[in-house]
Every structure is written in C-alpha cells, then in structure tokens.
Design goal:
- The chain is α+β, with helices and mostly antiparallel strands and about 100 residues long.
- It is built from 3 helices and 4 strands, in the order ββββααα.
- It has 2 domains: about 45 residues; about 30 residues, no CATH class.
- The N terminus is likely disordered.
- It holds the Pfam family DUF7562.
C-alpha cells in the first residue's frame, strides 16, 4: 500500500510541534526550517509545527533572522540579555528625522 507522503519514509513517524508541544503524526504536521528554505532538503533535519500553530505563524520572509538570533545568543542567555542584544543588532544606528517641536 503506498504511503501518503511522497517519500514514503515518514508514514508512521510521530513528531512534536515546536510551538505547543503536541505529539502528532508526521503526515499531519508542517515542516519548519529555521533558515526559511524548506525546499532545499539536502543535509537538513526539520522541526515541525502542528497545523494550528503553523497557521498562527508569520509566513513573511525572514532573511538574516536566524543569524541575528544566533548572534544575540537566543536560547543560551537570559531573556533580558537576549532582548538587549537583539535590539542592538536590529536597531538602525541612524538618527530619526523627527520634526522639531
């Protein structure tokens, strides 16, 4: 009997949603590629989202986001330090052109 997945190897696999922690069948999950390129499959392992969590995610381009998260020590430092570093890395250093009051 053919598998419902194109490659057949994931038919009985269970995965965990990285957003909510739900365990579900691989065929009922959506692949999540932290680099934003899920079509390039070579030498990759994917994380997964359940369908409700996938629908709740922003699907806009995120060029450079992963590198910025790594540089800000995401997941390796406390929240306050991470947020400070992330803001420093993503804030434009130019002065705003606000009208004089």
């Amino acid at each position: 009997m053919p598998s419902s997945t194109p490659w057949g190897r994931d038919a009985d696999q269970e995965v965990t949603c990285i957003a909510c922690g739900e365990t579900l069948a691989r065929e009922d999950a959506r692949e999540y590629d932290k680099h934003g390129d899920r079509w390039n499959r070579e030498d990759k392992t994917f994380e997964y989202l359940c369908k409700p969590c996938d629908r709740a995610c922003c699907h806009q381009p995120r060029d450079g986001l992963e590198a910025t998260l790594v540089a800000a020590d995401a997941g390796r430092t406390d929240r306050k330090t991470f947020l400070r570093r992330f803001c420093e890395l993503t804030t434009d250093d130019t002065e705003p052109n606000w009208p004089e009051s």
